[in-house]
Design goal:
With 659 residues, the protein is of the alpha/beta class. Helices cover 47% and strands 10% of the residues. The longest helix is centred in the middle third of the chain and has 19 residues.
Length: 659
């Protein structure tokens, strides 16, 4: 396209006059360049919520050259107007309306039912009240013979404006067309808005739900076909509104298993994409995965990412070859009803309207739905988070922490009434990833939830091990990694027999990865740590030498099937809290869970070395006892000794031991 523009542009003289009128008119030459710029704009894809400057710049150039070609507002100019209206948030409505008035001049405009540009112009004009409903009726009733992928959308829009008695068929036809549309296309956003508009009309109750669930299924399939996790953020991450509609439709129809699947399909997708990439790539492909990890980290740093297309092509070629050679084994997700005996899984979902939902799965029975009031928990969390950052963890922020625990308990009251199991597996959503739900006060005497129920956390059900995955470690080593100077008391622990110790001195990353053998029984990393609220891939373990970052962990951490992991660092399970585009539980602890560790103890915020040492000794002395039981026992003791601020810091991520 750039070459075509230059080729024609170079044939204008210094005064910008066309020099080859004997071959083609100046208007046609200008229009050719304008069309090229319009096409270039369409090929410049948005990156998540960001509209690239090149996209808008190309539209400005397209309009400039179209103006040189003709003063009339014709089809080409209206195509540019429609494109600018779609992408330019600063475009003035007055300018759009003036262009519409010129184009709709009855002296030269006549609606043509087979003209796709006219469908879009009619849609915009009807929304502005510039045309009567005759063209809407023509579009809604038009029996198209060709399989045009845009007409069904405009037909459904026209039917909505006409208050048609039954809109369900047209709405589903519009959704079906999304199967042939890439996620980067604005038709996805427009169709989602259409479903929402229909859902807000009481007279269409029961006519939009199937379309919403179908749209989710198509969107989920499109997400599965995405190659890189960064593309999930760019092209899929903006469709949470569509998932909200599907979730609400499933609840309305009483299809609660579908509602659980919708809720989970919104969680941790980039992490799962990276995990799938690890499964596809072998030991000889370490360099490819390293590039994928670098792209991940750069994407969250909001900086330039080089060679994305080259890495994408290299990865897709590798996966395609492995599939043809039958080397690629696809992993089957665990069924959402397959909750271990004695456990209840609680799937949280927070809609864009800040409505809270909990779906409870227990004993293989159908899920149960509980509507939640999350407003007070949110307010208490904001106050606690501000106090934590301002004065740290301790007596000075104890009041805000207790208020958060109290409000979390109020929110969970109706959930706990539905649960008979003694053990709860929480799958949070949104800011609830950052709330210590296990420390919720569940009655007036400030009894914590962990005193009554064992609590375990999982970022997404999709990260649960499948039935055929073993939770037994391949080795019986207990490994403790530390920089000895971080705490004198650690020397008392490492003098015990049975530790396979390693001191981290200068080359932090190499020392750590050289020491960790595949799947030890217990792995302890004893150090200081620091989360990163902006870019979680820069969260780090602080050592004597260079820090060990989350980015380094995901690139080099070995398989940890069945391993119990204890991370004593402050903020080792602190997630960024940025859930605007995607719901991601990204922390240092997540890196170990993604490598299939069975359980990972991490800290939500600052913690105390003495607490860490107690956990390490208990885990060492009781090699067959799950970490979630060890932590529960310890937290109960800390609670009795009135050390309230010690209680909620640690939590366990993972999955219950096999039945």
């Amino acid at each position: 396209i750039e070459s075509a523009i230059r080729l024609v542009w170079n044939n204008f003289d210094a005064g910008k006059k066309w020099t080859h009128t004997d071959v083609v008119s100046e208007k046609d030459a200008c229009y050719f360049i304008a069309k090229c710029y319009l096409l270039r704009s369409r090929l410049t894809l948005p990156k998540g919520a960001d509209i690239p400057a090149k996209k808008l710049e190309a539209l400005d150039k397209a309009w400039e050259w179209a103006e040189k070609g003709s003063e009339e507002t014709d089809a080409l100019k209206m195509g540019i107007v429609l494109e600018r209206k779609q992408w330019d948030s600063e475009l003035k409505e007055e300018w759009i309306e003036s262009c519409m008035v010129c184009f709709l001049n009855p002296r030269h405009y006549k609606f043509r039912i087979k003209n796709s540009l006219h469908w879009a112009i009619n849609d915009m004009a009807r929304e502005s009240g510039m045309l009567d409903d005759d063209s809407d009726r023509a579009i809604a009733d038009y029996d198209i013979k060709s399989h045009n992928k845009f007409l069904p959308f405009y037909q459904a829009r026209a039917a909505l404006r006409l208050n048609a008695n039954d809109i369900s068929g047209k709405l589903e036809n519009a959704v079906e067309c999304l199967r042939r549309i890439p996620l980067s296309h604005p038709l996805w956003k427009n169709t989602s808005e259409l479903i929402r508009n229909v859902s807000e009309k009481d007279e269409y109750k029961g006519q939009w739900e199937d379309a919403a669930i179908l749209a989710w299924k198509i969107c989920q399939k499109a997400e599965e076909d995405i190659c890189l996790s960064i593309q999930v953020r760019w092209y899929w991450g903006g469709y949470s509104g569509l998932y909200d509609l599907a979730f609400q439709a499933a609840i309305s129809k009483g299809e609660l298993p579908t509602a659980v699947r919708i809720a989970d399909s919104l969680k941790s997708r980039p992490t799962i994409k990276m995990q799938n990439a690890e499964r596809c790539l072998g030991d000889d492909d370490a360099e490819i995965f390293k590039k994928l990890a670098e792209i991940e980290a750069l994407s969250l740093a909001d900086t330039y990412i080089p060679h994305v297309e080259a890495v994408k092509k290299e990865f897709k070629t590798k996966v395609r070859k492995d599939k043809s050679d039958d080397k690629h084994e696809s992993r089957k997700d665990r069924d959402i009803l397959d909750v271990p005996k004695g456990w209840a899984a609680v799937h949280f979902y927070i809609t864009g309207k800040k409505e809270g939902h909990a779906l409870i799965v227990e004993n293989g029975n159908a899920p149960r739905h509980v509507l939640l009031d999350i407003s007070e928990v949110w307010n208490a969390f904001c106050e606690w988070d501000e106090a934590r950052r301002r004065v740290g963890i301790g007596e000075d922020s104890k009041g805000e922490l207790e208020m958060l625990c109290d409000e979390a308990g109020e929110m969970l009251t109706s959930v706990l009434e539905e649960i008979s199991a003694e053990n709860i597996l929480f799958i949070p959503h949104g800011f609830l990833h950052l709330v210590p739900l296990h420390a919720s006060y569940i009655n007036d005497d400030e009894t914590c939830l962990f005193e009554e129920k064992t609590c375990l956390f999982l970022p997404s059900w999709s990260l649960a091990p499948s039935r055929d995955e073993s939770d037994t470690p391949t080795r019986h080593d207990d490994i403790l990694l530390t920089n000895w100077d971080c705490c004198d008391d650690i020397r008392e622990i490492i003098t015990q027999d049975g530790w396979k110790n390693k001191e981290i001195i200068n080359s932090t990353a190499n020392d750590v990865f050289d020491a960790i053998e595949t799947s030890p029984r217990l792995l302890v990393l004893f150090s200081h740590g620091q989360g990163d609220s902006v870019n979680p891939y820069q969260a780090k373990f602080l050592m004597n030498g260079p820090p060990l970052t989350h980015q380094e962990l995901i690139g080099k951490l070995p398989e940890l099937h069945g391993t119990r992991v204890i991370l004593t660092a402050c903020e080792s399970d602190l997630v960024s809290g940025n859930f605007e585009l995607t719901d991601e539980h990204l922390s240092l602890a997540t890196a170990f869970l993604r490598r299939r560790a069975n359980e990972v103890i991490g800290a939500l915020f600052s913690c105390y070395p003495s607490v860490s040492q107690e956990l390490i000794l208990s885990a060492k002395d009781k090699p067959k006892k799950p970490l979630y039981q060890i932590l529960q026992n310890k937290q109960t003791g800390w609670k009795k000794s009135k050390d309230v601020y010690k209680v909620p810091a640690f939590r366990v991520m993972g999955f219950p031991a096999n039945d």
